[in-house]
Amino acid sequence: MEHIRMPKVENVRLLDRLSSRRAVVGTLYLTATHVIFVENGSETRKETWVLHSQISSIEKQATTATGCPLLIRCKNFQVIHLVIPQERDCHDVYISLIRLARPVKYEELYCFSFNPKLDKEEREQGWKLVDLNEEYNRMGVPNSCWQISDVNRDYGVCDSYPTEVYVPKSATAHIIVGSSKFRSRRRFPALSYYCKGNNASICRSSQPLSGFSARCLEDEQMLQAIRKANPGSDFIYVVDTRPKLNAMANRAAGKGYENEDNYSNIKFQFIGIENIHVMRNSLQKMLEVCELKSPSMSDFLWGLENSGWLKHIKAIMDAGIFIAKAVAEEGVSVLVHCSDGWDRTAQVCSVASLLLDPYYRTMKGFMVLIEKDWVSFGHKFNHRYGNLDGDPKEISPVIDQFIECVWQLMEQFPCAFEFNERFLIHIQHHIYSCQFGNFLCNSQKERRELKIKERTYSLWAHLWKNRADYLNPLYRSDHSQTQGTLHPQIAPCNFLYKFWSGMYNRFEKGLHPRQSVTDYLMAVKEETQQLEEELEVLQERLANLQKSQSGNNKVKSKQQDRSKQFGLYTSNNSLANTPQEYSNDLKSFPSRSPSQGDEDSALILTQDNLKSSDPDLSANSDQESGVEDLSCRSPSGGGCLPSEDSGKDSDEAVFLAG
Amino acid sequence: MEFAELIKTPRADNVVLHRPFHLAVEGTLCLTGHHLIFSSRRQDNAEELWLLHSNIDSIEKRFVGSLGTIVIKCKDLRIIQLDIPGMEECLNIASSIEALSTLDSVTLMYPFFYRPMFEVLEDGWSSFLLEQEFELLSSVTNEWRLSCVNKEFSVCPSYPPVVIVPKSIDDEALRKVALFRYGGRFPVLSYYHKKNGMAMMRSSQPLTGTNGRRCKEDEKLINATLRSGRRGFVIDTRPLTVAQQARAKGGGFEQEVHYPQWRRIHKYIERFHILQESFIKLVEACNDQSHNMDRWLSKLEASNWLTHIKELLTAACLAAQCIDREGASVLVHGSEGTDSTLQVTSLAQIILDPRCRTIRGFEALVVREWLQAGHPFQQRCAQSAYSNSKQKWEAPVFLLFLECVWQIQRQFPCSFEFNEHLLIALFEHAYASQFGTFLGNNESERAKLKLPQKTMSLWSWVNRPEELSRFQNPLYEANSLVIWPSVAPQSLQLWEGVFLRWNRPSRFLQEAEEERINIIKYNKELQAKVNALRRQLAEMETDGEVQEE
């Protein structure tokens, strides 16, 4: 609290990004964990909550006649534009937020104060939801070729690896330790995915310290052991996910890549994915495009192309597709690495696993996948997502890109995933929110030292509890798309990669489809389930009646009420909105005075939308996507919650000079 | 003329057909007067491909030894390749296809020969009469009347015989106004907004010329749509400079001095060859086989197609906004009033009028605002994206309209009774069809060709229950509200259903669609079952009670 210079500022204006006329006046509060903006206005009092850990940058702009603008950019792609009347207040808010958004100790993070009112047992249960041992068993290891190694039990060999690592049976402790000494940060080859069907595997490591000519017998034996663990194939692929030039440059620093001549029976392959710095800049450029006030189509497409973002996404997908194909179709094992083996390697291994194994396309399986390839193998969450104040050059949207790859696949295979887009968006949100302990720190070792499981809650349990909100209505476990390997189209396929406005323009509700097919179908399915239940009851009653025509049948009344529930969603899925600024030519023309009871300014949504998908999200920084757009007002003007769009603003058309 | 004269080689065996995402098939190729027919003889998987010659946009041939290859590019954007053994056969077939796909007489077109295999339940030629439209209008207002001034197509050759005009304006005045508007296209009612009584009119440009000619009747006509003391908007689909230049050629725009109650807004919509070039570039980009992501986006950008979509939607939204939000009447025109004008008026109706989002209402809209309104389909849709002819009157004006409807549909997926397939079908039939609906450039030409007597209407076919079910959107729930689409670039997407239809794997998307249909079908079945059971139980129970008594 000592960092808060200014706990409350009144008469602050929150600007609408698309239309500065739609500014709302309210009060700004700074708390230990959140920035909160509460609108004035007696009816709505709409609140916008932003977690300090979501803030990625704060920009104080030059004071104008109306006040001092403050721009807050968030890691979940929300942009908040405030105008504070007094320069002095603005400065105090600015200084406070700079400190609050840059915690220096883990203990300052929200997860240590977040209390979802669960008891100790529930918390422990929550952490047990995802169990990696169970997962390796599911894959089919340990078995005659693979075993669990305790060589890293005290993080003695590699401090960024988990304690339990699966390695080929023929890889002795001596080989592992020897190999680890020949690998960057001692990240030796370990099992990521095992394909029960044909014994092919995906292993991961960091780059070898080969320089221009160095060799390591144990490392060569290690790769040999991986090959032998797959009797069906006489070679393995070694996939270096870096551009060749980068890998070659590393040789000068005593690192580099495997020389095919030194390793027997490997096929070496570069798949050029750019490094974290290129990706950070690429995202930055794309976000600048998303932030443009009223871009032309050319501005947008040109900017998107110029950012290179989709090209990078495609590169990651291509690498994943290559590996999945090697494993599934050729039955060849693959060793994947980049430099340190914790960014691109994690992306590529998890994309390949997702393509190979339908389990990872289920909700639970996807949690397991992130836990396996990202959390346990030491993806540096703290550094990449800037949870604690640190080197800005370490920050990079590595897992964001993986999440986007999943979305791109969902677009191509709409029935293949058990979860929907919202699930991905909420995971992304919580990677940055620090509300749950899952993604704290840079490694398992650090998390254990911090006693994360005793002191914080698990996101997975939280998402699982609300899983109904994350279901893809088109998913059926017996559908052809949910069986076996997914084969995305390889060429021509450029046009298959699309801009994900649901993520990067997530808070610009006006840009998205106004009716959600997913929500609509989920409502139908829910009703279908009720109908099935009722049908059963009715059939039973009919049977009883027929049996004893003379008997007493007085169970009638209750069932009749049910029928009223049906059709709740019907005729409620219509939704109107307000016009955008389609022209600036109308400005001097007298606008019609705001009319009352304008029918189509009402905002109506499917009933099921009313149950907020994620109470914690909506209670926190996700206010916009949580409660706000889910609120509704019936066209008759009665009932329910008022919403921004149905508020007074919308009855008058907004025409403004652009 | 006998088609047989054009068909030098009516049949070739051992032809191999190549299509994207299909294995090559060997079979027999036959040419008839109107079709290219390929049938594979494989017992296990016999299949036939029927292609209308009029669907063929361009044809290329090349030889490797005596094996000839013909690449056929269709107006529906599909590309197929036929390998034909024998140089002579191949040359003959290629030249026959070329001749048959470029017949210059309308009366030789397939619709004049097509005999439907289905029973006509409702003659589409009389399904959408303006008289019916007027009847609906009369139930809410008496300010309008039907005029037969154009009965003989003498006042305006591109207008239908009957039009709806303000009641206070007589036919004599209309004749005068027609002389003051380009091509005789005097202002007529396009849409009446029941909610507030505002009207959308459309016309062509006024012939003011350089000396500022005026026409009192024209002023009176459009002022008749205004409420007292209120102003209206003229939405001119040309930029101001172009409108000013038009005066030198006798055209012009409504000047403030003579139309003080009207405010003019210039909302530029691209025309003719610019659109055609954009269309060609877009299709080229979609067919690009390269693996380079950057190239795709820059080609998409360079085509400008989505820019045209955005501009068009914006103009339509503006027109709708003037009517619904400003409570003002609107007059829309460009130069001729047969292209961008119709795009704007018809899209504005999609936004404003829930009826236009039903299947029947949408068909009526296409008939009223495109066919009867005199959009020159035959000229505009003569060739598609693969043609090299570059005639200046060819332009994908109607396709742009269809795509804008699709863009709105994407943003309001539950508010349309019809699905994407109806839009795609209209695109196909506008360019090549067995039906006579899209032949001719206006009602006058259609009457001369006696299309209603000699050809089948597309609507007779579409509205058959069997066909209709393919075009129904399972998610539809009537939405009585105005729907305002977003025109931000992030909200607009490439229409994959048309542009990537033949070069993307569609299986997974089709499966998703089937899944959506099944979810809803199953729900409805259950509902029916539950209701039936409830009734049955209720009856049994009352019977039981009666017995008890």
TrEMBL record, chain A:
GO terms for molecular function: phosphatidylinositol-3,5-bisphosphate phosphatase activity; phosphatidylinositol-3-phosphate phosphatase activity. Residues 307-351 form the Tyrosine specific protein phosphatases domain. One of its GO terms (biological process) is phosphatidylinositol dephosphorylation. Residues 521-548 form a coiled coil. It holds the Pfam family Myotub-related. SMART domains: PTPc_motif. The active site is at C338. Residues 126-504 form the Myotubularin phosphatase domain. SUPFAM superfamilies: (Phosphotyrosine protein) phosphatases II, PH domain-like. It is found in: Cytoplasm; Endomembrane system. GO terms for cellular component: cytoplasm; endomembrane system. Residues 570-658 are annotated as: Disordered. The keyword Kinase does not apply. Keywords: Coiled coil, Cytoplasm, Hydrolase, Lipid metabolism. Substrate binds at N275, I276, C338, S339, D340, G341, W342, D343, R344. It is a peripheral membrane protein. Its main location: cytoplasm. Belongs to the protein-tyrosine phosphatase family. Non-receptor class myotubularin subfamily. This is MTMR7 protein. The gene is Mtmr7.
Automatic annotation (TrEMBL), chain B:
It comes from the Eukaryota. Residues 124-499 form the Myotubularin phosphatase domain. Keywords: Acetylation, Cell membrane, Cell projection, Coiled coil, Cytoplasm, Endoplasmic reticulum, Membrane. It is a peripheral membrane protein. Its main location: membrane. SUPFAM superfamilies: (Phosphotyrosine protein) phosphatases II, PH domain-like. Pfam families: Myotub-related, PH-GRAM_MTMR6-like. Transmembrane segments: none annotated. Residues 509-543 form a coiled coil. GO terms for molecular function: protein phosphatase binding. GO terms for biological process: negative regulation of autophagy; phosphatidylinositol dephosphorylation. It is found in: Cell projection, Ruffle membrane; Cytoplasm, Perinuclear region; Endoplasmic reticulum. GO terms for cellular component: cytosol; endoplasmic reticulum; perinuclear region of cytoplasm; ruffle membrane. Belongs to the protein-tyrosine phosphatase family. Non-receptor class myotubularin subfamily. This is Myotubularin-related protein 9. It comes from Urocynchramus pylzowi. The gene is Mtmr9_0.
